[in-house]
Amino acid sequence: MDKAVSTDKLTKRFGDFVATNEITFDVAQGEIFGFLGANGAGKTTAIRMLCGLLKPTSGSATIAGFDVYRQTEQIKQVIGYMSQRFSLYEDLTVRENIRFYGGIYGLPKTELRRKADEIIQTLELGTVADKLVASLPLGWKQRLAFSVALVHDPRIVFLDEPTGGVDPITRRQFWDMIYEAANRGTTIFVTTHYMDEAEYCNRVSIMVDGRIKALDTPAAMKQAFGVDSMDGVFQILARGTSTK
């Protein structure tokens, strides 16, 4: 399968501290790939390197075939990004946020208007389209931020802790949007510390102290570790216990 993301011993050091330690993995085009771990495990550092925002110390990686050392500008054109804080400007309206981000990616004005109308209609935000984002409920902001990250039809979208702070029902509704994007061929790379969300991914990796300790499908991981939940897998890995 085509590789949307490929890394080999990707490492980032900050002085004597190793934030990510020789991580190696591939992500197929159209895959929902979960990048799991506790806070401080190195997930955000890794995603920033893959997005071209942070230069690795050593190792290699390509995103949609572009090199993370030499082709960061090309990478930024083919990816979308959504952070835990939703990457929205709260002093702009819903419509203005969509047009602002579409403009950053160079969409023509006619395409911007079409995209804005499409997103507003799909999210049923017509009554608040010209209201400030600051006035929206958290769940609406979350769905809007995801749609904005996809406004330029990227090949890969990176979601960094996208469901933090929202209730379980809203989280599940957000994952429905992720499935829809993946079904259209978009690769989803999602970091999270919610172990139950691993069940929604095609494959997951689990990071502990900067290293990838396991990488497989959720079902295969649970079978290998003899547990019935991904949280059980994580607890075993966090204690440093090997598989059966």
TrEMBL record:
<keyword id="KW-0547">Nucleotide-binding</keyword>
<dbReference type="InterPro" id="IPR027417">
    <property type="entry name" value="P-loop_NTPase"/>
</dbReference>
<keyword id="KW-0067">ATP-binding</keyword>
<protein>
    <recommendedName>
        <fullName>ABC transporter domain-containing protein</fullName>
    </recommendedName>
</protein>
<dbReference type="InterPro" id="IPR003593">
    <property type="entry name" value="AAA+_ATPase"/>
</dbReference>
<dbReference type="GO" id="GO:0005524">
    <property type="term" value="F:ATP binding"/>
</dbReference>
<dbReference type="GO" id="GO:0016887">
    <property type="term" value="F:ATP hydrolysis activity"/>
</dbReference>
<feature type="domain" description="ABC transporter">
    <location>
        <begin position="5"/>
        <end position="234"/>
    </location>
</feature>
<dbReference type="InterPro" id="IPR003439">
    <property type="entry name" value="ABC_transporter-like_ATP-bd"/>
</dbReference>
<dbReference type="Pfam" id="PF00005">
    <property type="entry name" value="ABC_tran"/>
</dbReference>
